[in-house]
Structures are given as structure tokens and as C-alpha cells.
Amino acid sequence: MNDLPQASNLTPTLFAYDTLLTISCANSANLQYGVNSELQKVDEWMIYNKLSINYSKTTYMLINSNSSQSCNFIAKINDSEIKHTTCTKYLGVYINQYLSWTKHIHNLEMKLSGSAAMFYRIRYYLSNNALRSVYYSLTYSHLQYAIGVWGGVRKTALNRLNVLHNKVLRAMTYSSYKSRVSPLYKK
Questions:
Q1: Are residues 182 and 135 in the same domain?
Q2: Which residues contact 165 (CB under 8 A, 6 or more apart)?
Q3: Which terminal residue of the chain has fewer beta carbons within 10 Å of its beta carbon, N or C?
Q4: How does 109-145 read in b/e, with b if 16+ C-beta sit within 10 Å?
Q5: Does residue 93 lie within any of the structural domains?
């Protein structure tokens, strides 16, 4: 896979078996032709290297596109039309066409809510050190993962995450919902 970048003008991002191909185009009229001709080159490279594309998992997304452009845009590899999506999950991060991170934040909220519920159930059975280990593996790791990408979201979205994170900390430390969280962070 390392020589895929020489096969096409699409910019590949390779990670294990996941491949993300990107292209930037100032002129939307030329975008469809450019994408489809470059995808043909990628397909030829794949065939030459005895590899295949899983068409059922292949999608495309137009970033910051208007709806009329995405309706008219068709991406194909040979005769197989690639499915258009407005949101996709790549390496554990949900990305939508507007880069608003709404789906990713919602996913984190669900994980934090589940973590809080779990800590309320297990806190009586584990030591403080064990609870801290569970916290770092099942809560903190999700909050920190790819934060450099999504962490610049609106403060209102971050506030919702902060409220849920505080709930997890209170559950871990047997604190009431009214207690201040600054000492809990220090602890």
C-alpha cells in the first residue's frame, strides 16, 4: 500500500487496512471528472497489485458542500457507483460534511453517561486505585482520543461533556450531585 500515492493525485491517508482518499478542488465543475478519473487510476493500481476494493464499505463525502452540489455529484469506480454519505466514522472519530463534530460529541455523551451509570454500580466493590484504573481506561481515554481534532467545538457542546464527566467523578468518589468538583479533580 505504501506506493499507492504514486498511482493517483488523490491524497491517501493509510492506517492498517483503512484508506482515506482526499482531493481538494477549487472548481466544483471539474471535481466530479477529477475524482472519477483518479478513482479509475486507483482501481487499476489495485488490480495490478492483486487487491480489491470493498464497494459495500466505500463511501464519499463532500466537505462543506451545498445540497445542490452533492445531489448532482456521482462518484464511480468502473460501473460501481459509490454511496454518498454526510457523516462517516474514521478511526473512531465521526466526521460530518460540515466538520461540526455533532455526531462525535453525541457518541461521547452516550459513553460518558454509560460510564457514570457503571461507576454508580461498581464503586462499592472496587478500591479507589481500581476505580481510578477503570476511569482511565473506560472514560478518560474516550475523552482524550483525537481531542486535537474535535476539541475546538462550541463551548455549549463541551459544557455538556463536562457535566457528564463531573457526574462520573462524583460517582467514583461517592460525592453528592451538589458537591463541588474542583477537589474531585485534584483527588
A1: yes
A2: 112, 139, 143
A3: C
A4: eebbeebbeebeeebeeeeeeebeebbeeebeebbee
A5: no
pLDDT at 18: 85
The 10s digit of each residue's pLDDT in 142-186 is: 999 999 999 888 899 899 999 999 999 999 888 877 778 887 777
Nearest to 97 by CA among 84, 81, 80, 83: 84
| Distance spanning both ends of the chain, measured CA to CA | 47
Q: How many residues does the chain have?
A: 187
53: how many CB neighbours lie within 10 A of its CB? Answer: 17
Nearest 5°: CA angle at 104, between 98 and 106?
115
Looking at the domain assignment, is residue 173 inside a domain?
yes
CA 31, chain centre distance (Å) = 25
Q: Which domain holds residue 28?
A: 4-85
What distance in Å separates the CA atoms of residue 41 and residue 108, rounded to the nearest whole number? 38
DSSP code, position 5: G
